[in-house]
Write a structure and sequence with these properties.
27% of the residues lie in helices and 28% in strands. By secondary structure, it is of the alpha+beta class.
C-alpha cells in the first residue's frame, strides 16, 4: 500500500455533501482513507468570479499506480457531476493528487507532487494539520 494525499474541493450545489460523496466514491474504488483534514471554506483560486469553495485534504492508502489513481480521481469527478468548464472554473467536485508516497513524477497528464501545493494556502494548512513533513511537499 502507498500513502497518498488528495485534495478535494467543491463550490457548486451542496458542497459539504459533494465532499462526502467524493470520499465515499473514492473508498468504493479502493482508496482507503485513513485521515481527513478539517473542511475549510475558501475564496476561489485562479478565477475569482465564482462561488466560494469547501476544501479538504485526505490521507489514504492506495494499492496501484499513480495513473490508476488519476483514473479513479477522474471517475469520482464524473460520477459526482463534474462537467468540463474553463480552467480553475466552478465545479461540483475536484479531486487532485497532491503527494504519492514521496514519488516525483512528471507526465503530460499528471505531475506529482502537485505543482499547485505552494500556491494554495488551504493545501498547506491541511497538510500541516495532518502532520505531513514539509520536505514531501516540493
Amino acid at each position: 500500500m502507498t500513502k497518498v494525499y488528495l485534495a478535494l474541493g467543491s463550490n457548486l450545489g451542496d458542497r459539504e455533501r459533494n465532499l462526502g460523496d467524493a470520499r465515499r466514491r473514492l473508498s468504493q474504488k479502493g482508496v482507503r482513507i485513513t485521515r481527513e483534514s478539517t473542511v475549510i471554506d475558501t475564496e476561489p483560486w485562479g478565477v475569482l468570479d465564482q462561488p466560494r469553495f469547501l476544501n479538504q485534504v485526505v490521507e489514504a492508502q492506495w494499492l496501484g499506480t499513480p495513473r490508476k489513481l488519476l483514473a479513479v480521481a477522474k471517475a469520482v469527478e464524473r460520477e459526482g457531476g463534474r462537467k468540463p468548464t474553463r480552467r480553475w472554473g466552478p465545479r461540483v467536485i475536484d479531486v487532485d493528487i497532491l503527494l504519492f508516497d514521496g514519488l516525483r513524477l512528471r507526465l503530460p497528464e499528471l505531475v506529482v507532487p502537485h505543482p499547485g501545493i505552494a500556491e494554495r494556502e488551504f493545501v498547506q494548512r491541511s497538510l500541516d494539520e495532518l502532520g505531513v513533513n514539509p520536505a514531501w511537499r516540493w
